[in-house]
UniProtKB/TrEMBL annotation:
Record-annotated membrane-spanning stretches: 20-45, 57-78, 98-121, 128-148, 192-211, 223-240, 323-347, 359-380, 409-432
Name recorded for this polypeptide: Cytochrome ubiquinol oxidase subunit I
Key words, A-Z: Cell membrane, Electron transport, Heme, Iron, Membrane, Metal-binding, Transmembrane, Transmembrane helix, Transport
Coiled coil: none
Length: 486
């Protein structure tokens, strides 16, 4: 193996690769499920076929994204046993039940109603089908609830006791574990990010079709709904992100120090660095460009508030500053770009040019995938900023890995890279292929196979035929006209 690529680093790269692929699908499907529920509700309330057309259009895309999210998520649970067996042994008594609750509640709810949602519109009543759509949307939220509870506990572990063998065991109350100090902030911030990710995808698709045909009513409605979401929710997300940052400052101060690039302490107010090159060896930010005292104002709401720096943290307790510093700026930069699009859309509505402003449409199209970049950057900021711990201040990442040789981990990593790019690359290509086509009146939605499901006995019935037509066939299959000899 090349120097520096030990089993621990390869295991971390493998988990980062698989979870990054996985994260983009739930980030899309959580928001898209709720969008589908809104579209169906508007159709039921107004009776306008346009909402039904949009529902069926996005339902096809949701089915593919949801399936890829489920498949990519299963792989990660296996890595807990293969690459992170020590972590599973130490923390399993706490995180195992929480992940089981995700399966028993969210996954069963989604699986139970997904078939009705995808194929049942012509089979069940409208209200029952709408209820199924709402249950799937609720299931995606509950799934995020439990997974983020697990992740948040790893950042702010509470409610546990340490057993005689070193295992982390549940304490007297599960509520302290589930609703750990960072969980409410992380849940709100992540779910809003999923909604905005979906909104900008929908807005990008609407903008694409408006650039080709400004009179397309389906594209107009998609674009208008997405821009309302951007204008209203992005400011809420910025506020939620600020609260999440303050919570992180309280419980994981060295993560915020890395995000801000504060190697040194600032007793009289800390600057907000807009740009710089982190230098871990020299413990300084090279070529720093900042605004004096603004970081103290944001984090402490006081221009002269003192802020401690990484010079107060031992070297072996510091996260990799460069990764956290830049991923945080990517996330924040995209957030403000989203705010700009939302404000631009409000101005366009005021000028009555929302559907007639090609520059706005091109900007929205360019911002279509921005939500995915933002959620991945935010995840990198959160997870890399927790290092060198996998359970903050309790279990180090280096002590949580399985005793594997580097070539074994490298081989599985290479296999994941090849398979993921082949399988999920094809899935993403097909989603883009569906998005390229404009919604149309009488959209067909998700179609079943012509022959229906295969029976257990292996016999698939043929197409239904008219009994009067069948009576005219003899054993050879020839068709007789009335009056012919039998």
């Amino acid at each position: 193996m090349p120097d520096g690529l030990d089993a621990l680093l390869l295991a971390r790269i493998q988990f980062a690769f698989t979870v990054s692929f996985h994260f983009i699908f739930p980030a899309f499907s959580i928001g898209l499920a709720s969008y589908l529920a809104v579209l169906e509700a508007l159709w039921l309330k107004t009776g306008k076929p346009l909402y039904l057309d949009l529902f069926k259009y996005w339902l096809k895309i949701f089915a593919i994204a949801f399936a890829m999210g489920v498949v990519s998520g299963i792989v990660m649970s296996y890595q807990f046993g293969t690459n992170w067996s020590v972590f599973s042994d130490k923390a399993g008594p706490v995180i195992g039940p929480l992940m089981a609750y995700e399966v028993l509640t969210a996954f069963f709810l989604e699986a139970g109603f997904l078939g009705v949602m995808l194929f049942g519109m012509e089979k069940v009543g409208r209200k029952l089908h709408f209820a199924a759509t709402c249950m799937v949307a609720l299931g995606t939220f509950i799934s995020a609830f439990w997974i983020l509870s697990v992740n948040s506990w790893m950042h702010t572990p509470t409610g546990f006791v340490t057993g005689a063998n070193g295992q982390l065991l549940p304490g007297e109350s599960w509520w302290e574990i589930v609703f750990n100090p960072s969980f409410p902030y992380r849940l709100v911030h992540t779910v809003l990010a999923a909604y905005l990710t979906t909104a900008f995808v929908v807005g990008g698709v609407g903008a694409w079709h408006l650039l080709k045909d400004r009179a397309n009513p389906h594209a107009r409605k998609m674009f208008s709904m997405a821009m309302w979401m951007a204008a209203i929710v992005v400011p809420v997300q910025i506020f939620a992100g600020d609260l999440h940052g303050l919570n992180t400052m309280e419980h994981q101060p060295q993560k915020v120090m890395a995000m801000e690039g504060h190697y040194e302490s600032h007793p009289d107010g800390a600057p907000l660095y807009l740009f710089g090159i982190p230098n871990d060896d020299e413990q300084r930010l090279d070529y720093a460009v900042g605004i004096p005292k603004l970081s103290s104002l944001i984090l402490k709401h006081d221009l002269d508030a003192p802020l401690a720096g990484l010079d107060t943290i031992p070297d072996d307790e510091q996260p990799p500053v460069a990764v956290v510093f830049w991923s945080f700026r990517v996330m924040v930069g995209i957030g403000f770009a989203m705010l700009g699009i939302g404000l631009w859309s409000l101005f366009a509505r005021w000028r009555r040019r929302l559907y007639d402003w090609p520059m706005l449409h091109k900007a929205a199209l360019a911002m279509g995938p921005s939500g995915f970049v933002a959620v991945i950057a935010g995840w990198i900021t959160t997870e890399v900023g927790r290092q060198p711990y996998v359970v903050y201040n309790i279990l180090r990442t280096a002590d949580a890995a399985s005793p594997l040789d580097a070539p074994a981990v490298a081989a599985s990593l290479l296999a994941f890279v090849v398979v993921y790019f082949a399988v999920f690359g094809a899935g993403v290509w097909y989603i883009l292929h569906l998005m390229r086509k404009a919604p149309k009146p009488g959209e067909y939605g998700v179609k079943r196979g012509d022959k229906g499901p295969i029976r257990t006995a292996g016999i698939t019935p043929g197409p239904t035929q008219d009994p009067s037509d069948a009576s005219r066939r003899d054993l050879s299959g020839s068709k007789h006209e009335p009056g012919d000899a039998p």
